[in-house]
Amino acid sequence: MTGDPAQLGHTPAGPPAAPVVRPSPTTRVLDMLRRALRAEIRVYSSIGRAIACRPAIPAGGTGIGYHRPVLTILIIFIVLSAVEIPILDLIVHPWPAVRIPILILGIWGLTWMAGLLCAMLLRPHTVGPEGFQVRSGLEIDVAIPWEAVASVAISKRVDEPKQPRVTVRGDHTEYAERMQDETNIEIELERPITISLPGLAPRGGAHEITSIRLWADEPRTFLDAARPFLTVSN
């Protein structure tokens, strides 16, 4: 259940990788619009969950937050946005044609930031009878069944900034959901499984992975919640 992360050695080169097909500009625009619409819907559904005090955690499951490293920054942005609205309204008050659009944008921006905070609080990582879910913000929600999991370990790592979520090293493909470039949970899989990430290839879309890394505010809680299900599945 616990232990040092696996050390990856040199592996022989495999067959040449298939060329990556780049999506057309039209496809990119349509995908961007779809993602924007989904994010907008999730903003308001997350606020609704917060009002109703209904976190998105399956029955019999445990929620583990991932928001702690960015919580202070997010709250500061929300407070500044709330303060900015009346100040700008006072400045442009004599010009209704300018005032109304700025007021609408300000309220929308504040609502969006509040919805993002609610999503991070009400949509945590979950560990439940069916498996675990890796979540982040408004879009990421990756479900992994227990039968595909070989081991779960606490293993802190700091990556270089702007690393892609999916990295390939030989025959090993890792999916990492970082927080401030850090992860502290390592999950090795019994077999490669396919996950779907938001957006288009090569960063988004379907990826076959062999291991997962993620950040959990309480890594020990994640490990303790996973242990009974791993024991049963093994």
Describe this structure in words.
- The protein has four helices and nine strands, in the order αβααββββββββα.
- It has helices spanning 25-52, 68-91, 96-122, 219-233; strands spanning 62-64, 125-128, 131-136, 140-145, 149-158, 166-169, 172-177, 182-197, 205-214.
- The protein has 234 residues and is an alpha+beta fold.
- A hairpin with a 2-residue loop joins strand 2 and strand 3 (131-136).
- The model is unreliable at 1-15 (pLDDT under 50).
Radius of gyration: 21 Å
What's the overall average pLDDT, rounded?
90
* Class derived from helix and strand content: alpha+beta
> What would the principal axes of the Cα set say about the shape?
globular
Kindly report the spatial arrangement of strands forming the biggest sheet: 5-8-9-7-6
Query: Largest beta sheet, briefly?
Result: 5 strands, mixed
Number of strands: 9
- Intertermini distance: 11 Å
* Proportion of beta-strand residues: 25-35%
Unreliable spans are: 1-15
**Portion of residues in helices?**
40-55%
Order of helices and strands: HEHHEEEEEEEEH
Number of helices: 4
What's this entry about, in short?
Helix content is 40%, strand content 28%.
Write the layout of secondary structure elements.
Elements: H1 25-52, E1 62-64, H2 68-91, H3 96-122, E2 125-128, E3 131-136, E4 140-145, E5 149-158, E6 166-169, E7 172-177, E8 182-197, E9 205-214, H4 219-233
Parallel strand pairs: 7-9
Antiparallel strand pairs: 1-2, 2-3, 3-4, 5-8, 6-7, 8-9
